[in-house]
Design goal:
Layout lengths: L6 E3 L15 H12 L4 E2 L4 E2 L19 H13 L3 E7 L7 H4 L4 E2 L14 E2 L2 H21 L3 E6 L4 H6 L14 H18 L6 E6 L11 H13 L4 E5 L7 H4 L6 H5 L4 H12 L13 H11 L4 E4 L5 H9 L5 E4 L1 H5 L3 H6 L13 H5 L25
Bound molecules: flavin mononucleotide (FMN) and iron/sulfur cluster.
Flavin mononucleotide binds next to α13 and α15.
């Protein structure tokens, strides 16, 4: 795949699909605008591969063939502007809400609390594991049918694949856990089986954590290094480096401010005081730091050699981006929050209209997601209207 420049729109859930995951006109419009901004590669928000793997109510789905025509419209809108598009596929595993999926969220191991939903996980059976692997493979086949240029497997941020890779979530002592090799097996099977259905011209990308920041040890930099080596052997085409998890370490993933009130707005009244207390304790501990995953990237790059490394996390100044490319620490510059506020950023960089992004990492766009508000920059005003949230869908 050849891209027009080194900029990537990192996957960012848009909260703009219908409740069954179907694409809407608003979602197509958003991607058409991003493509007009001349971003080399656009990765739309993560798409769930199985109904039990849905994370949010208005998340885009790719779990059934009926969704293909809508997804194709996103691809066409991006291609019309000569952009490239990779679809990111995900299964939430235990990182969802029983009230959303109508079942107990499952993960590699049982009895693990999701501190956001307060649900305890159910241990996946062999059948669950095989069904979810198949769901990833089927989703990949659908991506190809939409005409998208690439696939990105979401193995980061505490979702199901990350759960298998991490000794914090994966406490199994069978063929799927108990050693680094066995923890890796789930991802390995997905990649091996997916590659069988992929035409040779469709690259398979992955988003990987180099640090989970879970309460006890999960993926750490040395383990991520080992996994990267194995990913190269499996023929992965590019690795995007990230960190943190949506429920245990969200502000490692998105460093910046902690918008306590906006997060607390998403929970029912009886939980508000507790949630405010939890998030208030985090204030000031995740201060913004330019390119906060760069050290991890420097560690991974020599291991993966010629395979492109995509860096995400706090990239905000053009000079900094140019420097890390010139020094060959990374190959592509990926951003999420800056493109929410300024979809035309790359074009403006090119035309030398600006040399840094306007996003101030206040994280209100992030707080909007559990509130079920559509993705946009909320720096000036956060909606006060109440929406039925994922806590009580
Ligand atoms: C509102 C919002 C939604 C996100 N949705 C996703 C997603 O769908 N998939 C994903 O891999 N990461 C997601 N992320 C994480 C971003 O892709 C990115 O890794 C993170 O925001 C750090 O990059 P940034 O500093 O450029 O924002 C999301 C982040 C935000 C703020
Ligand atoms: S709400 Fe706007 S300024 Fe704040 S982090 Fe999101 S995009 Fe950036």
């Amino acid at each position: 795949m050849e891209v027009n420049n080194r900029f990537v729109r990192s996957a960012t859930i848009e909260n703009l699909a219908k409740e069954d995951g179907e694409v809407t006109e608003k979602l197509i419009k958003l991607h058409s605008t991003l493509a007009k901004g001349e971003i080399g590669l656009i990765i739309p928000g993560y798409m769930y591969v199985h109904p039990l793997g849905q994370a949010f109510k208005y998340q885009t789905g790719i779990y059934k063939n009926d969704l293909i025509p809508g997804l194709k419209k996103i691809v066409d809108a991006i291609h019309k502007e000569e952009g490239k598009v990779a679809f990111q596929i995900v299964h939430a595993g235990l990182q969802t809400f029983s009230r959303l999926i109508g079942a107990t969220p499952m993960g590699p191991s049982g009895d693990i609390i999701n501190p956001v939903s307060m649900d305890y996980s159910r241990e996946m059976t062999e059948e669950d594991i095989q069904e979810s692997i198949e769901a990833f493979v089927e989703a990949s086949r659908r991506v190809v049918e939409t005409g998208a240029d690439a696939i990105q497997i979401h193995a980061a941020h505490g979702y199901l694949i990350n759960q298998f890779l991490s000794p914090f979530y994966n406490r199994r002592q069978d063929d799927w856990g108990g050693s680094d090799e066995k923890q890796f097996r789930y991802l390995k099977e997905i990649i091996t089986k997916t590659k069988k259905v992929l035409p040779a011209n469709i690259p398979l990308l992955i988003k990987l954590n180099t640090n989970d920041y879970t309460p006890t040890e999960g993926i750490t930099p040395p383990l991520a290094a080992k996994y990267s080596e194995w990913l190269v052997k499996l023929g992965i085409d590019a690795i995007e480096i990230s960190c943190g998890s949506t429920v245990y370490a969200i502000f490692n993933m998105c460093r910046g401010d902690v918008p306590v009130q906006e997060i607390a707005q998403a929970v029912p009244d009886y939980m508000k005081a507790m949630v405010e207390g939890i998030y208030q304790d985090m204030v000031g501990k995740y201060n913004f730091d330019e390119g906060y995953n760069l050290e991890a990237a420097k560690m991974i790059k020599p291991i993966i050699g010629n395979i492109p490394l995509i860096l995400v996390g706090g990239l905000r100044h053009k000079a900094f981006m140019e420097e890390i490319i010139e020094k060959k620490y990374v190959d592509l510059i990926s951003m999420a929050r800056p493109f929410i506020r300024e979809p035309l950023l790359v074009k403006n960089f090119k035309e030398e209209k600006q040399d840094k992004v306007a996003c101030i990492s206040c994280n209100r766009c992030l707080a909007a997601i559990p509130n079920n508000f559509p993705l946009r920059c909320y720096v000036n005003k956060f909606p006060e209207e109440k929406k039925p949230t994922t806590y009580f869908p």
